[in-house]
Design a protein that fits this description.
Strand order of the largest sheet: 3-4-5-6-9-10-11-12-13
Number of strands: 13
Strand content: 15-25%
Largest sheet: 9 strands, mixed
Oligomer: single chain
Number of helices: 11
Shape: elongated
Order of helices and strands: EHHHEEEEEEEHEHEHEHHEHEHH
Amino acid sequence: MSITLDLSRASAPANGIGKAPVNLSGLTREGLRNALIEANICPPEKAKMRASQVWRWIHHYGVTDFALMSDIGKETRAALGEAFTLARPEIVERQISKDGTRKYLIRTAPGIEVEAVYIPDVGRAGALCVSSQVGCTLNCTFCHTGTQKLVRNLTTAEIVAQVQVARDDLEEWPSPKEDRRLSNIVFMGMGEPLYNLDSVSDAIDIISDNEGIALSRRRITVSTSGVVPQLQALGDRTAAMLAISLHATNDALRDVLVPLNKKYPLDQLMAAIRAYPGLANTRRVTFEYVMLKGVNDSPDEARALVKLIEGIPSKVNLIPFNPWPGTDYECSDWKTIERFAAILNKAGYASPIRTPRGRDILAACGQLKSESEKQRASARLKAEREADADDAAAA
C-alpha cells in the first residue's frame, strides 16, 4: 500500500510517537500567527509582529534555515527549528529544453510526484505552470496528464513549493522589485484546480502577498475545464485571472474531448463565465482551444466559437496539439490554424497562436505526466515477480 504524506508536515516518526514538524511555507499569514502561538514561540500580543518577521524570511528571502533569520533572537530561532521545518521537496529530475523551458519533477512525499514547468519569455518575463493535483480525474481525451489516475490533491505547501523550487533554480531570492525572471503563475499543470480550491486559494494568498513573493493576482491565472459550481468562489476568493479549457463549441464534441461537459454542459458553463467576479475588458477571460486536425479546426467551428463567446470580454489562445506517446490525435496544419485565427480576429477577438514550448522534454501543454509513474509500476511488477520466485523456491 502506497504512503501519502502532507508536505506541510515532515515524515512521521517510524515509531508513531510525537508530531512531525509543520512546514511553515504552506501556512497563510493567519495560519502562521496561530502556529507560533500554539507552539509557544511568542505570546498572542506579539504573534503578528513575529509572524511578519518569519514571513519575510521565508517568502521574500527564501531561506530554508531558521538560523539565518538574523533579526530574530537565537533562542527564538532555536525554538522555531525544534517546532517547525522549512524543508524543500526533493527534485527528482530537472530537464531543460532546447528552447529554454525547464521542467521539474518534484517528489513531495513517498509516492507523490508532480511536474512544474518554467517557460521563459511568457507573460511579462517568464511563467511557471504549476500543478494542483497528483494525476487528474477529468480524462480529457487529448491530454496526456488525463491518462494518469488521480492520487490526491496537493496541499498548499506542495503548491507553494513548486514556486519556491523554480525561484531557487532561477536564483531569484530575495524577491526582486523589477527584472523578474518569474513574473507569472499559471495553474495549468497536473489536475483540476477547482477540485482543490481551498489549497489553491491559500497558495495564491501566499504567492501574491506584498511582503513575500509579491506576484500580482492579475499575473496569476487559474485554468479550469469548467467546474461550474466553483467558478463564483474562485473569483471571490482569489481575484485570479480565469482561463477556460474549452476546445469545442457544441456539447456533442465537448462531451468527447472534455468529459466533464456531460456534468456541466456549455449553456451552464457560459452562464457562469459571464457572471465571473470582476470580468471586464481589463480582466478578460482566456478561452483555451487546442487545435485537433479534422476534429475541431474547421471554419464553421471558428464561426461557432465567435457566436458562443459573443459579448464576453475575452481572448482565445489557439494551442497547436502537442503529441504524446499513444495518442490518436494529430495537430492541425499551420494554414488551418491561421485561417481559424483570422476568423476570430475579424470578429474582434485576439487569438494568439501559442508557440509550442518544451515539446522535446514533454513539457508542453497537455504533455505533463510523471514519468516516474511508469517506473514505479515497472518496479512493482519486478518486485512482485521476485517475490513469486522466492516463494516458489521456498516451497
